Amino acid sequence: MKKQVVVFTGGGSAGHVTPNIAIMNELDPQKWDIHYIGSRKGIEKELITKINIPYHGISSGKLRRYIDLENVKDVFRVIKGIMDARRVLRKLKPAVVFSKGGFVTVPVIMAAKSLNIPVYLHESDLTPGLANKIAQRFAAKIFTSFEEAAKFFPSTKTEVVGSPIRRQLFEGDALNGRRWLGFDVNRPILTVMGGSLGAKKINSSVREALPELLKEFQVVHLCGKGNLDSSLETVEGYKQLEYVHEELADILAATDFVVTRGGSNAIFEFLSLHKPMLIIPLPKSQSRGDQILNAQAFSKKGYAVVLEEEQLTKETFIEQIDYLESHGTVIQANMREATKTDTIAYLVEQIDRMHKG
Ligand SMILES: CC(=O)N[C@H]1[C@@H](OP(=O)(O)OP(=O)(O)OC[C@H]2O[C@@H](n3ccc(=O)[nH]c3=O)[C@H](O)[C@@H]2O)O[C@H](CO)[C@@H](O)[C@@H]1O
């Protein structure tokens, strides 16, 4: 069988990269030569080079919904990005481009379309992001995590497939996790994940509530790059980490309850691992409000408790954690009822169909 090239793209935050990694890990290396196109500086560069996938950096502009002088510069950056991407794609001649969203994907998709290379899109959120809104018309197929997302795309080429979760997350070892964290083997663990980039308001609320939390839990705090608090380094039962890679599987295996932003990948991971979660979605003032909708959908299905950031104080935080703890069993029962699709296997199969060897 002749090897063919598949190009993945997606970036800006880990949520646009980790699902790609999940799929790439399961493609047959005898069949596929995998390449990645991302921005020159984004988090995707670090995450992809770390796993030794050839990485092609291109120029990329931020897509803003508001009027800004930077928009003008960004138009040129995007045009340059299309030219950069065309150069890479011409050389690689992929059978298919798989895009996970984020602004860097727009020039890649446009370049692919101009070269008649089929593009597959995956949308993780309940409503499409700006990049996927633009990109959808160029895509041959569109896959979504949420059932509710399908209605935003043309029905003829859209399929609800769920969230591609890296298989390694299901192989964690709780005891190893506790050992790695330096935690006691018996006391319950609360893990706080403030989105892949961290979340300032969640970070400060957790730290404020820490004395109360530590009465009940040991706390793992994934606080994002540059957000460590050195004054809390020696607090027993509290482990702060900027970002964890392969250790996450063991940490989650050891985790009893989760506090999280409403990023789609994270909440689908916790759902699949049956971890009762408190979601504090990114507020509308800092986003397009997609995490609020993700969170509401999860709350409606009984998978999560939701606290809006505007309501977040030390008191409401502790109140919601108490509620989560007392309703954990019911939430887990709802999670067990959730539809189980092997999203990764399905997407791998879809990509394999593009192999013309
Ligand atoms: C601020 C922002 O725009 N966030 C968006 C971004 O979220 P963000 O990048 O925060 O992504 P998600 O919460 O969806 O996923 C985070 C990913 O990072 C991983 N992880 C996180 C912390 C860590 O220490 N180690 C680690 O591996 C998680 O396991 C998960 O796979 O993309 C998501 C998917 O489109 C959207 O729903 C979010 O609204």
From the structure above, extract its key features.
seven-stranded parallel β-sheet, about 350 residues, alpha/beta, about 40% helix, single chain, 13 strands, six-stranded parallel β-sheet, Rossmann fold, 2 domains, binds uridine-diphosphate-N-acetylglucosamine, globular
Task: Explain what the structure shows.
Belongs to the glycosyltransferase 28 family. MurG subfamily. Pathway: Cell wall biogenesis; peptidoglycan biosynthesis. Its main location: membrane. Residues 6-144 form the Glycosyltransferase family 28 N-terminal domain. Pfam families: Glyco_tran_28_C, Glyco_transf_28. The strands form two sheets. A seven-stranded parallel β-sheet has the order 3-2-1-4-5-6-7, with helices on both faces. It is globular. The N and C termini lie close together (6 Å). It has helices at residues 18-24, 43-50, 69-92, 105-114, 130-135, 174-181, 200-216, 248-254, 264-272, 290-300, 314-337, 343-352, and strands at 4-9, 32-39, 55-58, 96-99, 119-123, 141-144, 158-160, 189-193, 218-222, 238-241, 257-260, 277-279, 304-306. It has two domains: 4-162 and 341-354, 3-Layer(aba) Sandwich (Rossmann fold); 168-338, Rossmann fold (3-Layer(aba) Sandwich). By secondary structure, the chain is α/β, with parallel strands linked by helices. Helix content is 39%, strand content 16%. Helix 3 crosses helix 4 (105-114) and helix 7 (200-216) crosses helix 11. It binds uridine-diphosphate-N-acetylglucosamine. Uridine-diphosphate-N-acetylglucosamine binds at residues 13-16, 18, 101, 124-125, 193, 195-196, 222, 243-244, 248, 261, 263-266, 269, 282, 290-291. Uridine-diphosphate-N-acetylglucosamine (UD1) is lined by residues 13-16, 18, 101, 124-125, 193, 195-196, 222, 243-244, 248, 261, 263-266, 269, 282, 290-291.
